[in-house]
Amino acid sequence: MNRKQFISRISGGAVLIALTSSSSFFINACSNTSNPVNSQGGVASLPVIQGTAGTNTITLAIGATSPLAAVNSVALIQNGSSRILVKRISDTSFLAVSAICTHAGCVITEYTISGAAYVCPCHGSQFHPDGTVLQGPASSGLTTYPTQFANGQLTVTIK
Ligand code: FES
Known about the structure:
By secondary structure, this protein is an alpha+beta fold.
């Protein structure tokens, strides 16, 4: 191997090392925004229910086949531009919070299989069903809404 061939091989190796290092940087940078719960397989998409808009309210019937029929079940309720997360906490009680993430405005569409947290698909923030932050980057809780349940109908007051 002459001097020119030697330098060519060395510089090619340096480029390969540089590419490998920069690829690792980009992979690490992307993984920082991945959802840690997703990577563990503990997250599922929320069932979506179409609600009915009233004056400052959204209502929905909850029968035996509703995604909210069982205690501890959760769902994303939508009507027009409204998006609300609902968790059933007893036969007659529900928690309702805004599904708009306080970090950067994504719609929260996932939850932990245990039902203990809502999970934002954008950057992995997690919220307790009462709206408080369990994991950032979000730093403020979700807007909460009062609920009423009577005769199999849930009413969420949104204003
Ligand atoms: S928009 Fe929800 S975590 Fe960033």
